[in-house]
UniProtKB/TrEMBL annotation:
Role in flagellar biosynthesis. It holds the Pfam family Bac_export_1. It is a multi-pass membrane protein. InterPro entries: FliR, T3SS_IM_R. GO terms for biological process: bacterial-type flagellum assembly; protein targeting. The keyword Transmembrane helix applies. This is Flagellar biosynthetic protein FliR.
Length: 253
């Protein structure tokens, strides 16, 4: 009897781990390069053990072929990718916003490695990304991520086909929302840059012998930095609310 139960238990555990493990590889905060792969693996296994008694009844018997087992695993990872990439795209909106802000403030030349991806990016993006991840854990939004993991079993039942058309439409929508969020976050600095550089252009026409742009660069950085400090709290509060709204789409109320 024990040998009859073990294969079924192992099959269900692997499928749950496929979904949870993929989510931990994509979710912000858990998927950062600073978090070791071993730590992510331990967290994924622990959450899988917690979810096992709650969601194991949703799974059926073991498929008779290896292709059926692989197809079930791919389906679980695809469901996790929909949830994980949704939040990943919203985090990418922060990179868009920080790049625009750094360009408007004259700080686009200050480059450094991104702790999330390891690629070169503006230092302002490193600061805002680190702050966003910190706020996710401070405001307990990581609990909302775990709740979305659990409710994904109700939103995407195991024994039903995936709505690929709806998933493709949602992916297009969330990608467009990322650009909109990035523009909204940087919109005060776009307006500031237009006014500031319009004034410099007008001044350069009135005093063509003066190197206006060279002299005004320190003032641009100073005023822009002060404006950034004044708006940072409002920007990040609104941004955290948007992340909560995205995760709320996967919460079954």
């Amino acid at each position: 009897m024990l040998f009859d139960v073990l294969p079924q238990t192992a099959y269900i555990f692997i499928l749950i781990f496929s979904r949870i493990g993929t989510l931990f590889m994509l979710m912000p905060g858990f998927s950062e390069r600073a978090v070791s792969v071993r730590m992510r693996l331990i967290l994924a296994v622990m959450v899988t053990l917690v979810f096992f008694p709650m969601v194991s009844s949703n799974y059926g018997s073991i498929p008779v072929t290896l292709v059926g087992i692989v197809a079930a695993m791919v389906k679980e990872m695809l469901i996790a990718a929909v949830l994980g990439l949704s939040v990943k795209f919203i985090m990418a909106a922060l990179q868009i916003a920080s790049t625009i802000i750094a360009f408007q403030l004259g700080l686009s030349f200050a480059m450094g490695p991104d702790p999330s991806t390891g690629q070169q990016t503006v230092q302002l993006n490193t600061f805002m990304s680190t702050l966003a991840i910190t706020l996710i854990f401070v405001t307990n939004l990581h609990y909302l991520m775990i709740a979305a993991m659990y409710d994904s079993y109700e939103m995407f039942p195991v024994n039903q086909m995936l709505p690929l058309g709806d998933i493709a439409e949602y992916a297009t929508q969330i990608l467009g929302d990322a650009f909109i969020v990035g523009l909204k976050l940087s919109s005060p600095f776009i307006a500031y840059g237009l006014v500031f550089y319009f004034g410099l252009g007008l001044l350069s026409r009135l005093m063509p012998q003066l190197q206006v742009f060279f002299i005004a660069m320190p003032a641009n950085i100073l005023v822009g930095t002060v404006l950034f400090m004044m708006l940072l709290v409002s920007m990040m509060s609104w941004y955290m609310g948007h992340i909560e709204a995205v995760l709320g789409r996967f919460i079954v109320r």
